[in-house]
Design a protein that fits this description.
InterPro entries: CHAT_dom
Largest sheet: 6 strands, mixed
Helix content: 55-70%
CATH topology of one domain: Serine Threonine Protein Phosphatase 5, Tetratricopeptide repeat
Number of helices: 44
Structural class: alpha/beta
Number of strands: 14
Organism: Multifurca ochricompacta
Protein name: CHAT domain-containing protein
Distance between the termini: 75 Å
Length: about 1000
């Protein structure tokens, strides 16, 4: 402020001196023009600083006189004629801005044009770009005010711009010129409406674009986006829509988040996509429009001029989404948006815009509203019938009306359960299908809806007994639903999420009728293991189990195994797919293809496992009162869809190469069977239709163990009983001990006894290794401790006393854990991570025991154990031991992890991303490391122990629940004595760890003081 004040004083002093000098040089003194020029210049600069109208009124006649007075020939050489003339033009423009006198405007334009027409060598002290900018602003004002619309304004400015832009292409003047010419061209396009003139306007936009780098001229690109959007509404040509989006996004990239034009750009994109949806009926256009509308609202606080229009646009898109999908929540949110709009004071033009959007959406959905009353449904039905009667036969709107009418009848059937209503739903869906082109959205959506309607009618005919679907003969509605589901599933343009939904309904309807294992993992193989996948798979968790039960019933045991593998642990399977080894591809001279695949796969994995995404996932979908917030999850999903598309194209390229036909396809049984290379794998399929136990063997067909008729219900009750008791009582309590004892006894009768008998029948020697691969509720039950088993000496034996037990989430995980094992007799190095404190007093003794027994150990204890040091050190050790607290995050399973120093967490995400290449074994002396809870999806293996196996550790020891503090030291002493003993050096670390755990647990059981059942059952072994 002080600097400006000083400048103002200095200029004022010069004005006073010039005024005094002027009094001395009256006309026709030859020096008077020079003094006038000095006075006018000083007044001009003071006006620029102070914006005082008096200075402006005074300087115009002063500059005019200075230019008109005759000068001596000697004075002409140094008199700044062009400079003074330019200041006069600017002053006239300033006065026009203040007073609105058209004569000032005309003179300023005339003077600017005169200056621009001068030879370049004359313009030594004036920037031609500055002059052109001033001219462009005046001409744009003429256009905006409607005082004059000349089609040649744009050509004139563009011609000068192309002439002068090379002088300073990054000048702010160029930015402003581009904005002004954009305004002129937009007005021209709007004025002519269609035809050759509009295309010429777009061509002129392109000429300006060629001279303006987007990162410097965002305003121009937003105006250009509006122009293409306007043209799209005139022509309905998709290219105009695409070009509008490109220009809007170019502008958005360079606009600060608080820029005034940002809401306009966001709303522009939303509007284009909204109109695109009305043309192509593609759900993706609609979803993107909603996403951008929400972003625009975030930039428009209450009272913002654009906010009502943004709300109206969002309401229109939500109403169309409702008509498209039939979810009443969308309509409810749309109504809240409209209430917000109509409760505001709107100008008449804005009210007209808002009402046009509302009317358009009402026309689209035919006034279709849903509420929970039968009367409301009847009113909707009447509205739909009237709408349909007004639409000419063959008109495209007829398809929307037919589908909406079918949805109304379906809603009425859900309310009344009257078969006649269902018949009407089927009739209108069939009519819509008959009238729709093959690639129309109604074809895709109505196929799915019709299949569900046939399924409902079949159930009505069978007294709503879902079990009638099990043995249904291929006839009538059952056969129709199967055919329609298959047609819907095979639709070319359907998105992976909807395809997965269809697959789930299809499988639930027939458990594999006409199915193969391909559909079960379709959602994972599409690359769509997004944060929402956990919820998606949770809703369809029984599909692979149902499918497997069907194959078992048909006698196809190998198909059953493939089905279970295909549809379980999809989150982990996809991550493993994203990391698929490219060695073979690189070796076949396809290195660039492998690199492209890995880059996209890595980005997909990063998105899948990012904490930001998982936090959004845990919050769930936006509620109606959040419509003004950003749709962050939608933005991430848009990126995921793009990456999935690119990845799919690369996968197709890879599969087209010789030898890669089955790249990333379902794993055949002959490969899965290799999981049993070191011992049998026991799969328990817990399915509502039938339960079975399969034993996978190394060199023969799977063995089948039938189960009792009440197996399904008994197993489910065991899981519920154990989890509920653990939630209500302490682990060391008598209540829990009794519950656990009962569960282990029942497990032995249900599973343990028949498995031991079958293994003995198969000549599998005692103390051989076996692997449990459970499904459903059995993921939460301690199968390794089933018992007690009757023995000749009267002692208590359990399953793990007969066979050495390990677990694996899937067969693929076990196969991967054995790949590339390089055995060495050298003692393995071990990383010890510990956090001894008052709550874990035994940790220090545990650490000392390991350090004493290990030949090579690195300890990260207390403050040394940070997330960074631990993840870095894990890469350089074959073994690791964690002795600290664990955390179990039910809502955000990827945030489950270890508590390190200062409450810092080493999460499952950190482990996933660490890409451990040398890791062999880790012992997690941590509570809950392998715990299953009632809220988790059992077949997804989202716990730390499984995560360690998937992330590189070939073998892992973990705990099923909280552990006693002293057990860590006791178990470690017995365990590591065996692990580091000379007699074990020739044995692979995985084999060593399984046998060492078995022996250590047996030693724990022999402790007399305080050793309860849950303390030794707690420890489990995963992996090789």
């Amino acid at each position: 402020m002080t600097g400006t004040h000083d400048i103002l004083l200095d200029v004022s002093t010069k004005i006073e001196l010039a005024q005094k000098a002027l009094a001395l040089f009256s006309r026709p003194h030859p020096l008077r023009p020079c003094v006038l020029a000095a006075l006018g210049t000083a007044l001009f600069y003071r006006y620029l600083i102070s914006r005082q109208g008096g200075d402006l009124c005074a300087l115009i006649p002063v500059l005019t006189e200075a230019l008109l007075l005759p000068r001596l020939p000697a004075a002409t050489a140094f008199f700044p004629t062009i400079n003074i003339f330019y200041k006069l033009a600017c002053s006239l423009a300033f006065r026009f801005e203040l007073c609105g006198n058209p004569e000032d405007d005309q003179l300023a334009v005339k003077f600017y044009r005169y200056i621009l027409a001068l030879p370049s060598e004359v313009l030594t002290e004036i920037s031609p770009l500055e002059v052109l900018n001033n001219l462009a602003i005046l001409l744009a004002h003429k256009i905006q005010s409607g005082t004059e619309v000349r089609p040649d304004y744009a050509e004139e400015i563009i011609g000068y711009l192309q002439k002068f832009v090379a002088l300073d292409p990054l000048s702010e003047h160029v930015r402003s010129i581009a904005k002004s010419v954009g305004i002129i061209l937009l007005a021209r396009l709007t004025q002519y409406g269609s035809g050759e003139e509009c295309e010429q306007a777009l061509d002129l936009f392109a000429e300006v674009e060629g001279a303006c780098p987007s990162e410097r001229f965002p305003e121009f690109y937003i105006i250009q986006g509006i122009a293409f959007s306007t043209r799209f509404q005139q022509t309905s040509l998709y290219d105009h829509c695409r070009q509008a989006n490109i220009r809007y996004n170019k502008g958005l990239i360079s606009l600060p988040h608080d820029h005034d034009l940002r809401p306009l750009a966001l709303m522009g994109i939303a509007t284009v996509l909204h109109h695109q949806f009305t043309h192509d009926k593609q759900p993706n256009s609609l979803e993107e429009s909603i996403r951008y509308s929400r972003s625009a609202l975030t930039s428009c606080p209450s009272g913002h001029l654009l906010r009502p229009a943004c709300l109206a646009l969002l309401a229109g898109s939500l109403r169309q989404r409702y008509a498209f999908f039939g979810n009443a929540e969308f309509l409810h949110e749309a109504d809240t948006c409209l209430d917000d709009v109509l409760n505001q004071e709107l100008t008449e033009p804005l009210r007209e815009v808002v009402m046009n959007v509302i009317d358009a959406s009402n026309d689209f959905i035919g006034g279709f509203r849903r509420n929970n009353s039968l009367q409301g449904l009847m009113e909707e039905m009447e509205l739909q019938q009237k709408r349909l009667s007004r639409i000419p036969a063959g008109h495209s709107d007829q398809l929307d009306a037919l589908r909406c009418l079918a949805l109304v009848w379906g809603a009425k059937f859900d309310y009344t359960h009257e078969l006649a209503d269902l018949e009407e739903e089927i009739k209108y869906h069939a009519m819509a299908l008959a009238a729709s082109p093959p690639d129309h959205y109604v074809q895709r959506m109505s196929l799915f809806s019709l299949g569900k309607a046939f399924q409902k009618r079949f159930l009505c005919d069978n007294n709503n007994n879902e079990h009638s679907l099990i043995h249904a003969p291929p006839r009538g509605d059952f056969e129709e639903s199967m055919t329609v589901f298959q047609s819907a599933y095979d639709e070319e343009y359907i998105n992976p999420r909807t395809r997965y939904e269809i697959a789930c309904h299809w499988a639930a309807c027939a458990r594999g009728h006409l199915l193969d294992a391909e559909f079960v993992g379709s959602w994972a193989n599409s690359g769509s293991t997004t944060p929402s996948s956990q919820r998606d798979m949770g809703s369809a968790r029984a599909v692979p189990l149902d499918c497997a039960s069907y194959y078992i019933e048909m006698g196809s045991l190998e198909k059953a195994v493939e089905s279970l593998e295909r549809g379980r642990a999809l989150l982990w399977s996809e991550m493993r797919g994203l990391r698929t080894s490219m060695d073979q591809l690189r070796a076949s001279d396809n290195a660039s293809l492998a690199d492209r695949f890995m880059v996209i796969s890595q980005e997909l994995e990063n998105i899948t496992t990012s904490k930001e995404v998982l936090e959004l996932q845990s919050r769930g979908d936006a509620q109606p009162d959040d419509h003004h917030g950003p749709d962050e999850f939608g933005e991430i999903m848009a990126r995921v869809r793009m990456l999935e598309r690119e990845r799919g194209e690369i996968v197709d390229e890879i599969r087209a190469r010789p030898g890669f036909k089955n790249f990333l396809k379902a794993i055949p049984f002959r490969i899965l069977q290799t999981a049993a290379a070191c011992g049998p794998v026991i799969i328990i399929n817990h399915c509502r239709y039938r339960c079975d136990i399969l034993i996978i063997l190394r060199d023969s067909a799977p063995a089948l163990i039938p189960t009792a008729h009440d197996f399904y219900d008994r197993a489910a009750k065991l899981k519920t009983h154990l989890i509920e008791t653990r939630a209500e009582y302490a682990l060391e309590s008598k209540h829990y001990q009794r519950a656990l004892r009962f569960v282990l006894q029942e497990l032995y009768e249900l599973v343990g006894r028949p498995v031991i008998e079958k293994l003995q029948e198969l000549k599998i020697a005692e103390e051989s290794r076996v692997w449990w691969c459970p499904t459903s509720v059995f993921c939460s039950l301690p199968l390794h401790a089933a018992g007690p088993i009757e023995s000749e000496d009267g002692g208590k034996r359990y399953f793990s006393d007969v066979y050495i037990c390990s677990y694996t989430p899937t067969l693929s995980a076990l196969i991967d854990s054995r790949k590339g094992i390089t055995h060495t007799v050298e003692p393995p190095s071990i990383l010890i991570v510990g956090q001894p404190d008052s709550t874990l007093p035994g940790v220090r003794g545990e650490i000392e025991v390991i350090a004493r027994l290990a030949k090579s150990a690195t300890s990260l204890i207390g403050a040394r154990a940070t997330r960074g040091t631990v993840t870095d050190s894990l890469r350089y050790h074959r073994m690791a031991h964690f002795a600290c607290h664990g955390t179990l995050e039910l809502e955000r399973p990827f945030d489950t992890g270890f508590l390190l120093h200062g409450e810092e967490r080493l999460t499952l995400l950190d482990i996933v991303r660490s890409r451990l290449s040398t890791a062999e074994f880790t012992l997690l002396s941590v509570c809950h490391a392998a715990e299953w809870t009632d809220e988790q999806i059992p077949d997804e293996a989202l716990h730390l122990t499984a995560a360690m196996q998937y992330c590189g550790f070939r073998s892992v020891v973990g705990t099923l629940w909280a552990m006693a503090d002293t057990d860590g030291q006791d178990l470690s002493e017995h365990f590591y004595k065996v692990m580091f003993s000379e007699g074990m050096r020739d044995m692979p670390i995985g084999e060593r760890s399984a046998r060492a755990l078995c022996g250590a647990v047996q030693r724990l059981r022999r402790k007399k003081k305080g050793m309860t059942l849950e303390r030794w059952v707690n420890f489990v072994h995963y992996g090789a």
